[in-house]
Amino acid sequence: MSIRLLIGLSLMLGTKVYAQHTQHIKGNVIDASTLRPLAGVTLVGHNAYAVSDETGAFVLKTVGDSAVFKVSHLGYETLEFKPHATTASPVLLKLKSSSTALATVSVSGKTQERMHSENATVSIAVDEEFLDANRENSLMQTLNKIPGVSTMNIGSGQSKPSIRGLGFNRVSVVQNGVKHQAQQWGSDHGLEIDQYGIEEIRIIKGPASLLYGSDAIAGVVAIQPAKIPERNSFNGSVNLLTETNTDLYAVSAGMQSRGQNWFYRGRLTYRDYADFKVPTDQINYENYIFNLHNQDLRNTAGKEADASLSLGYVSPTFRTETFFSTVSAKNGFFANAHGLEVRNSSIAYDASNRDIDLPFHQVNHIKIINNSTLNLDAHRLHVDLGYQHNQREEHSEPVPHGYMPKPSGSRERVFTKNTYSLNVKDVVSWGAHTVSAGINTEFQNNNIGGWGFLIPAYDRFTLGGYVFDHMALTENLHLQGGLRYDAGYLDTQSHFDWYRSPRTNADGSTSQVYAQRARDQQLNFGSFSGSLGVSYIHKNTTYKLNIGKSFRMPLAHELASDGVNYHMYRYERGNLNLDPESSYELDAEVRHDSGRYRFSVSPFVNLFDNYIYLNPTAAYYESLQIYEYTQAAVFRAGGELTAGIDLLPNLSLDASAAYVYSRQTSGPKDGFTIPFSPPFSTLFSVGYGIKDFSLFSETRFTGDVRITARQTDIVPPESVTAGYEVLNLSVMSKLQVVSGKPWALRLKLNNVFHTPYFDHTSFYRLIEVPEPGRNFSVSVTIPF
Amino acid sequence: MRILKLCLVFIGLILCAACSSDSDSLKDEEKPTIRVAYEGGFPQGCEVLKRGETYTFKAQVTDNEALAAYSLELHHNFDHHTHDDQSETCELSPVKEAVNPFIYRENFKLDDRPKTYEISIQVSIPDAIDTGDYHCGFSVTDATGWQRRTSVDIKIVE
Fold first, then answer.
1. Which secondary structure element, helix H or strand E, spans residue A232, and what is its range?
2. What Cα–Cα distance (Å) separates residue A47 from each residue in A12, A39, A66, A78, A291?
3. Which of A64, A282, A516, A540 lies at a 20 to 30 A Cα distance from A169?
4. SS3 annotation, A136-183
5. Cβ neighbour number for residue A549 with a 10 Å cutoff
6. Are A620 and B150 inside 8 Å of each other by CB?
7. CB interface of A with B, residues 380-439, below 8 Å
8. What letters, b where the CB count within 10 A reaches 16 and e where it falls short, cover A112-146?
9. What is the SS3 assignment for A671?
10. Does the pLDDT value for residue B24 go beyond 70?
11. What is the DSSP letter of A351?
């Protein structure tokens, strides 16, 4: 709507006649949370107007002192400004960002980003409203409704992101400006982030190394810092959630407060859930049959306890916030098969569906992040400082494997990662140009423990520098481009087995040796990345076109692993000669939104010079199949399509579809797809709002059907996954229980027909475990 | 609406390009097979083997294109940590600690890319090893990297 306004205003500009007795009010418009100047903001009054320039400055020519001005900007809440004769000039106006919701999937306007470096990049903003309405058991499952975003699930409570079919270390998760660093390379690892208290997430689909460095080769899930509370405010909310499928109980309570300049906020979350139920009594994996008790997937219960606290200071020129958080979880793994390995045990798993027996893992992630912004005349300086400690312990029953005798204790694998990050960015506005230049540095110290070996201990240091220019050619036509160089250093430590294995010597004799699993190795990497993009706004339609090159540094296990993964029945071998992955992508987006109709299409074409994956070879090592980290050229293409219509003001229909085609065009699996390719998927939603009644208001019913095609495009060792249709229903309402803010209620019924179906990218797919069955959940949010 | 149509055509073209360049028919998407439960296959489920004896382990393997390698692996199951994938359930001896368990792990290559092959491996069971429940695993790969595994519960006695 603001675009129309803007266009209308620009037309008016030429014809406007200056009024008599004009009074000049000078001022600046800034973003209330980031304190960045906002350009293109319209100030409209009865007979006056103004549009802020690139530095956020405006001059209002008004008549008298009774005028009220509407200050509006796409992506921001409209503000009313009433200047008086006494109003000091210049005035400072702060606009609060509002991520606009389109039906169930929130897709925000891009206008704010036109001044930001993410401009022209195909991105999606997800707001708190969307998160509340779609909340599932893990953050990424909540985001699963966004076309092009899928998840890799590990049971019911854990998941990791996948964007356009690429996941693990190819998607960067960024929280408050700092890259979340955990064990994201692992297939049984989920994201350790409290999904409550998040106000906005920006998802970039496509390569984003230019601004985020290595690992952002497929996209970014950027959790934005929460907005700064209003002056002299105190508020908060308590959320209660219960679910039938996993017998889950969760509570999350958060509060925030601000005096004049100082503010603080805090949140506590606790979740406890039992084994998840699947719509089957029996799992048939190869020739094994596992009978389930009450359809409970044995030993998949979990619990999670999170706490966070932040303290900040804000003034017109300086803003700083320091954020402390801890996320702890304990999750059980399916007892009958860990990985692919079928296990017998004398543990009485079925005695309770809530206890967490072996095998399980325990994770703790501690974060301390400081974000500071200094607003100088033409410069804005941002500094992000972060420390993260990630501890993951995998416990399983000690059993002998190969030449390894029965180990003592259950600590199979222990991963400890300490990450130190520093990002510095300066943004300079200069005419039509907004130039950003910055550096990102990160140091990681990784240690290992336990009796099982998978990856070596290593240190990693990365340093990247970039410069990025955003240029407004006209009001509606913007260009952007940038260049970046990254250097990386990796130092892996040697590792030897703690037990002896027989080795055949050159003379034919056999000796018992402690086999070396990793070598002491120092490696250096360097890579350029860059991008060029254009965006054009015409009426209600936005066009975007981007071309970019991104990269990813090989990980320690891809380079240096040399060990047996018994749970997967394979021997994993790294390759020290791997090059950094480089990816070239051309993507575009056309988005149209005329209020009643909305439509978007975002196609992409992508080429990888050297995509790294774990390739199953035909060879054996000690009777286990050798899997080798290999590089191959890969061609990918696909995109997302969304369309929606409001049939009536209270009845909306929306549909979306996402497809990715991937082909390896060289190497040992030439002609095959790449691992974990998501199938073609569509989502149809109907939303119906009803009139307020009794104490209920803003009541809205939603039904959505996900139709996913059969995935026949597989690469060894994957299996074909059948297509499925799943229906979910929900109703949300506001309930005025007592005086004060209304409570938010949500009832949700997932998998209405208790349909057994498989998710091609789920961890348990390997052993033929279907996705969770019917789930009824009730959520209440009580604000105060 | 013109834009909408153009976009549909665009995405349609991408999808068509994607589908038509597909080489599905040329890819090997079949796993090899492995069979022990036939006359001559050894060991059959719950087979009892004696220490000091030499046995020929036999299994029939096939593939649609080319077999590449196979392996045989024997390890103890004194702690009942796993079970086989054959139809019958064997009676296991009581759980016990391993002292000197028998471990056999060998790999073999098939260089002439056969489509069918009978695995035949001579294994001598030493005299000094622990008797009790053992697990016997065969696995086979094809040239593409597909693998099939099967396992049989056996017992080794004096």
1. none
2. 11, 21, 11, 18, 76
3. A516
4. CCCHHHHHHHCCCEEEEEECCCEEEEEECCECHHHEEEEECCEECCCC
5. 22
6. no
7. 397, 399-400, 402-403, 405-406
8. bbbbbbbbbbbbbbbbbbbbbbbbbbbbbbbbbbb
9. coil
10. no
11. G
The secondary element (H helix, E strand) that includes residue A424 is strand A411-430
Instruction: Determine the pLDDT at residue A101.
Output: 29
- The size of chain B, in residues, is 158
Contact of A202 with A231, CB cutoff 8 Å: no
Backbone angles phi, psi at A660, to 5 degrees: -135, 130
Which of B44, B49, B43, B42 has the alpha carbon at shortest distance from B156?
B49
> What token pair was written down for A480?
């952007």
Q: Which residue has the tokens 């073999």?
A: B108
pLDDT, tens digit (0-9, with 9 covering 90-100), for A390-440? 999 999 988 888 888 889 899 999 999 999 999 999 999 888 898 999 999
Q: How far is A300 from chain B (nearest CA, A)?
A: 19
A345, A625, A668 ranked by CB distance to B141: nearest: A625
More confident residue, A266 or A61: A266
pLDDT recorded at residue A483:
95
Determine contact, residues A631/A578, Cβ cutoff 8 Å: yes
Q: What amino acid is encoded at A422 in this protein?
A: L
The answer to whether the CB atoms of A619 and B83 lie below 8 A apart is: no
Which of the pair, B132 or B20, is modelled with greater confidence? Answer: B132
Burial zone of A355 (CB within 10 Å; 0-12 exposed, 13-18 middle, 19+ buried):
middle
Contact predicate A90/A52, CB 8 Å? no
Q: How far apart are CA A186 and CA B104, in angstroms?
A: 30
Interface pTM (ipTM) of the complex? Answer: 0.86
A347 Cβ neighbours under 8 A, 6+ residues apart? A335, A357, A358, A397
What would the pLDDT profile of A719-747 be if each residue is shown by its tens digit? Answer: 999 999 999 999 999 998 877 889 999 99
Q: What are the pLDDT digits (tens) for A597-640?
A: 999 999 999 999 999 999 999 999 988 999 999 999 999 999 99
Question: Could you give the percent of chain B with pLDDT greater than 90?
Answer: 56
CATH T-level assignment (fold) for domain B31-157: Immunoglobulin-like (2.60.40)
Q: Which residues contact B16 (CB under 8 A, 6 or more apart)?
A: none
* A341 — pLDDT class (breaks 50, 70, 90): confident
Choose the mutation target among A499, A620, A672, A682 for the interface with B, i.e. most B CBs under 10 Å: A620
Q: Please state the domain extents for chain B.
A: 31-157
Nearest to A606 by CA among A552, A553, A547, A657: A547
Per-residue model confidence (pLDDT) at position A187: 75
Q: Is the pLDDT of residue A15 over 50?
A: no
CB-defined contacts A:B, below 8 A: 124
Selecting from A616, A659, A671 the residue whose C-beta is nearest the C-beta of B15 gives A659
HSE, CB side, 13 Å, CA atoms: give it for residue A427.
Answer: 18
Residue A91's pLDDT is what? 79
Chain-wide mean pLDDT for chain A?
A: 86
Structural domains of chain A, with CATH: 2-95 (2.60.40.1120), 105-783 (2.40.170.20)
